[in-house]
Amino acid sequence: MGWLDIFRARKPEGGSTATAAKERLQIVLAHERVSRTREDFLPKLQQELVAVVARYVSIDPGKVAVNLDRGGDMSTLAIEIELPGPKVAVAR
Amino acid sequence: MAKVVVVTSGKGGVGKTTSSAAFATGLAQRGKKTVVIDFDVGLRNLDLIMGVERRVVFDIVNVIQGEAKLNQALIRDKRVDTLAILPASQTRDKDALTKDGVAGIIEELSKDYDYILCDSPAGIEKGALLALYFADEAIVVTNPEVSSVRDSDRILGVLQSKSKRAEEKKDAVKEHLLVTRYDPARVERGEMLKLEDIREILAIPLLGVVPESESVLRASNTGTPVILDAESVAGQAYADSVARFLGEERPHRFLDPEKKGLFKRLFGGRAA
Predict the structure, then answer these.
(1) Are strands A64-69 and A76-81 parallel, antiparallel or unpaired?
(2) Does the record's keyword annotation contain Cell cycle (chain B) (predicted)?
(3) Among A28, B53, B65, B122, which lies 20 to 30 A Cα-Cα from B45?
(4) Phi, psi angle pair for B83, to nearest 5°
(5) What residues in B contact A35, CB-CB < 8 Å?
(6) Given a cut of 60, is residue A34 above it in pLDDT?
(7) Is there a contact between A68 and B56 if contact means CB atoms under 8 Å apart?
């Protein structure tokens, strides 16, 4: 390390990788602390949703994608259920 | 048929997860369909190092217990499209991992992937034993430090006695030595074990040497596997190691101290 490092330390904090680390940790830990006191509801939520949809349309439980994006202020949960197309009668 | 590779070390904090993330990404970059599994149930971290922590929905325990399908639990990497991550559970206890459950997952993944990387937890308890049980090859991550070398030797013994290949008396698990956090300047000053000493003691083929590098912390800060930092010495050392793993001949680099000129000594040059 040389003496120029004295000036390096004054670099603005924003945009540094350490700031990114702190923000990522704050988000992930906020979510984990909540889930420590509450049971993971996602498996059950998914099962119940699929059951409800299956009451109306026949679906393949393997074609259900659950996507989550945890954010600081807001998270998005996207559940994608592939619906089969209308069966076309095949002429024999 | 996929190849199952365990990344293990015995000792904690030597760079298993960093190496798993780098290797998985490197294999995928070279077009291999790769999935990397976190076996550290209760203390998962691969998701953070890979930068997918916000997208974890289901985990390996959900799959074993039938609460989610395998393809729902897999997180597809957004940077390299042939790469997927299977996270560990953060809330369940370690007993939720069972040999039959893991066997089922590996069998199913084998159909779709070329490489299944198992990121082992530290220690030689259940999670670590299950991570190495199904391995065809093992990457033993070792620091140039007495306790790490001793624990690596211990884990090599476990590989040779407790893996599926050992139990079924098949060809032994293929072992690779990956030395990480190597500091050539300290080696030169006689403060750190030499590469040759580690090789002599452990006596397994050398896959690569990753020098101590500031880029590793930067990479973990941002959740970017360090191999994607192609400018950094650590990134290049991992890329070399992946190439060797795939059978390419590559000379070992970064084994000697960087020669600093007067300018660098005065104004500071850091390992990128």
Answers:
(1) antiparallel
(2) yes
(3) B65
(4) -115, 135
(5) 90-91
(6) yes
(7) yes
Closest residue in chain A to residue B264, using alpha carbons only: A2
B55, B67, B222 ranked by CB distance to A17: nearest:
B222
CB proximity A69 to B under 8 Å: yes
Domain total in chain A: 1
The chain B residues in contact with chain A (CB within 8 A) are: 48, 51, 53-58, 62, 67-69, 71-72, 90-91, 217-218, 220-223, 264-268, 270
pLDDT at A35: 80
Residues 6+ positions from B189 with CB-CB distance below 8 Å: none
Q: Across the interface, do B270 and A20 touch by the CB < 8 Å criterion?
A: no
pLDDT tens digit sequence for B126-163:
999 999 999 999 999 999 999 999 999 999 999 999 99
Nearest in space to B159 (alpha carbons), one of B137, B127, B144, B142: B137
ipTM above 0.90, yes or no: no
| Full 3-state SS string of B176-202 | EEEEEEECHHHHHCCCCCCHHHHHHHH
Domain residues for the domain of A87 are 23-92
In a domain, A5, yes or no: no
Tens of pLDDT, residue by residue over A50-69, are 899 999 988 888 888 888 89
Assign residue A49 the CATH number of its domain: 3.30.1070.10
pLDDT tens digit sequence for B255-267: 999 876 666 666 6
Specify the amino acid at residue B152: S
Please tell me if residue A32 touches chain B, with a CB cutoff of 8 Å.
Answer: yes
Q: Is residue A13 in some structural domain? A: no
Distance from the A66 Cα atom to the nearest Cα atom in chain B, whole angstroms: 7
CB contact under 8 A, B67 and A71: no
- Mark yes or no for CB contact A28/B62 under 8 Å: no
Instruction: Say if the Cβ atoms of B48 and A28 lie within 8 Å.
Output: yes
Q: Looking at the domain assignment, is residue A84 inside a domain?
A: yes
